[in-house]
Structures are given as C-alpha cells and as structure tokens.
User: What shape does this take?
Amino acid sequence: MLLGCAVSLAGPACSGGNGFRDAGGRCWYDSDCPQGYFCDLEKDQCQPAGPDGDGKDGDFDAGEDAGDANDDAGEWGGDGGEPGSEAGSDSGCPEPEEYERYCFLPTEPCRYIGAFCHDGSWTCDTGFVHPPPPPDFDDWAWQCGVYTCYAWDVPEEPGPDWQEEKPYVPPDPASLTGEWVKVADSDDIVPVGCERQPRGYAIVSNLAVNPQNPNVMYTSFFVRDNTPSIFAAGVFKSVDGGESWFEARAGLGAAGCYGLECTTGPSVNRLYMDPDDPNVLFAGTTERGLYRTRDGGRYWEFVDLPYECAFPEPVGKSPTGIYYLGCRDKLYRSIDGGETFEKFATLGSMGRGIITIAFDERLPDRIWAGMCEGCEEYPRDGEGFLFLSDDGGQTWQELGQELDASCRGACAVWDIDICPNDPEQMAVSIYPCGLFTSSDGGISWRRAAAPLDGNVLSSAAYAPTADRCRLYAGEQGVYGLYYTEDAGRSWTLEYNKYLDDLFFNPYLPQMIYGIIIHNMGNDEEFELHAKK
Assistant: This one.
C-alpha cells in the first residue's frame, strides 16, 4: 500500500471537533481540547488547566503553546501541585489516595478533572464523582489515559512475546467454505507494555505474507510526529495466520537519525518481502532510510543509502536476482544481495517519484516503474506515468500518456499488476484517479467500467489462475471487493469490504487475504479478512 510521495493516504486515527479525540480525551494539539483544558503532549491527553484559586479548572487559552501549558497551567492547587493537591480556601486534607485525586462525569467516565480539598476531604465538583478505589481504579486509569504506555521505543532485542515459526500444513480443500471472515483487527496489535491500554492503536500501512508459509505474516505501521506515542510503530509479525501478533522490530529505526530521534520508532511506509527468501524483508521508513532483516524480523539492520534516499520508496527483486530501489526519480540497484545500492538510472525529466516497481517472471530483463506527481517546481502533467525497460534498466520507454491526460498530472501509481496467465493483460491502480487496464502489454490503457470507474481505489491484484486472467480490485466509494475476467469491462462483487494488499494462498489459491487500512464506516483502522 502506498503511503508517501506527493500524496498522503494514511489519515489520522480519528478526528472531530468535539474537543476530545476519543473516549480517552487524547489530543494532538491544544485546539483539540475544550476550553479550560490543554494538550499534555507527554500523555497525549487533554488535561484540565490549573485552578484560579478554587482548585477547579481555570480559564486556559486552548491556543496557548502546550509546553507553556505544562509549566504554567497544567498544575493543581495554589502551591503548584498535581491532581488532588491541596487547593482553594480550605486546607487540612490528608494525603489523598490515588483514586481520590480524580473526578469524572458519570456519563463520560474518561472526561476527568482533579479533586479539590474542602472541609477536610477531597471533593469533586458538582456532577462529578471519584473513580472507583483499587483494584478497579487501575482499570479506569488505563482505560482513560491516566496511565499510559510508550510504544515508540527502538528495542535492541526481540520482545518477550517473540514466537518461532511452525511448519505449514495446508488445510484440506474439502474444509474450505468460501466464506469471508474477519481474522484480526487493531485490537489485536498490542505493543509490549500496553496490554492494559485501550486497544485499537494501529495504523497499518502494509501486509506481507510468506508464500512458502502463509501462516507467517508481517504488518508495518504508519505514524506521524503528532500520532500518540501509545500507537504501534515499526513492524509486527504473526505466525498463526493473523490470529495473534507480536513485535518484530528490534533495531528498526536505530540509525539514519541523530540524538533523541534515534530512541523513537520510525514510520514504515513500505514493506517488501524477498520472493526467493521470505526471511529477508526490507522496510522503507519516513526520513529514517531503509532497513533490512535476514531472519524474519528478529533483528533489523540499516542499509546505508545516499541522503536523497531518506524516504525510500519501493524495493523490488527481478527474476535475475538484482534488487531495485526507487528514491525520488532515481532508480538504484544492488547486485550484492542488498548490501549496497548504486544509482543506476533517472526516469523522466519532471521530477516525479518512483513509487512502484514490477517484474514479469517470463521476461527476466523487463522492468516496470510507476510514478507519482512531481514536486511543486515541476509542471503537473506532460509526461507518462509509466516507464518500461526490456534490457534490465539500461534504456527506458515512456508510456502511459493517456493516464497522465486522464488524471491531469495529479496522481500516483499504487501498483502495476501483470496477469500470470497472459503478460499482455495488465492493470494499474492510480490514486486518486482510478483503475486502468491494458490488453496490449501496457502500450495503451483504458479506464475500468462501472462500478469501479471512480477515482479512489485500493490496490488491484490478479489471481494466480492458470486458465484465465481474474483481476480483483476495490473502490472506496463503492465500498467492496470486485473481480473481472474481461479486463475490467464488467465486474462481480466478491466481498462487501474494501480490501488492500491482497494475497492468494499458493497452496489453495481460493484462499484470499486482504486488509482494511483506512477507517471506512464502522471498520477498525486495521482489519485482516480472509476467504476460508
């Protein structure tokens, strides 16, 4: 799944203008909080501002800098204490129990303020009540963000939850029902130390599945500077077909950075698995460069690249065994197994970025490259969005002019797909322009027919069938997964979910996996679905 280049496809975990990001009152900016509260960036939580002499929340300007808010307004009581410290006109309260420090609205348990001292006891404002005493207090404190975990560290070693892979035994074909089921969602992505934190903190960017052992899966996570630090970062792994997940990110993000930056996990926007050795994966990060694991995610190592590759895009391996890497409009290659990469070619003259690389097993020297729109100093249109080489990248042919004309230069090629049964049949998914198919090997392209004739699509994929070209694709507006066997002229609904990163089980191709990445309707931020 594409995340980056000239478009940003991963939205925030939630949004709204009600002053609270979610039931826990989490925030990214002071403007996310109601009047009288500020955004405590350490806790990713809206916190009541300091009292104005009465021990209750004061008149705090939500637009004030959060750092000043912590120093000047985020304290309780006249002596600069914390929630539950002595405040107002009364004194003589005993040291409060921890639960006595807080008060919440019964109708909104996670909308809490601090208690104040009155007549010798810790008291709540009208309409507010104390949370329950221990042991139930801990559950409330974790649920409402009083206690928080930190999921953005860069571990040096695999976590205590690491699991070894087990041999794969394909299911009996007679046991398959053809039903689609939800296998996992954001609630199943739990960083170590966050087990008691409210679930659902995973913005997944990619799914990679081991073709030799489809029970082994990897997901990568997209985070921003303002994403709460309780969200998962890096890469997680499953060895039971997605039923459970654990951290697989030791060393991921430890280089390509300076100082404190190196202590926070990176945003992974691309994840690529070597088709010949599924224990080898590459992770392209945002502003942290490229990382590689050679042991199935147990440890990651930094791949040294030029400065212009701080935001590496796709990695791909050709049938000849050469790795290729896109960095902006430059194509790099590695002939030593990914140890080093050298600049190899520049595609186009408009500064467009290479964001997709595709190969054809039947034509080992053929390389396809898909582009995204150029930077602001370049014109938006006037050049094809596809480049083709038939000599291993020595020379390139510009294609896809009709794509550029149809999309008016403002788009990005999510993926390039080639039918395993017929290399002349191809498809490209272009954000935010649509799905296009070709029946002449990419020389000419036409837009897919309804209902997939809209603008925003998921990645498309051909099923590994030997006797036909069945193409699967989805569209956000239509909200479903469809397939076609006539090059996009007609479509059949397969599933009423909009899925990305489709994977077909090589042992039983009728078993299909796909993920929901972006929240649509009542879906989680991440859901893994499978056709059993």
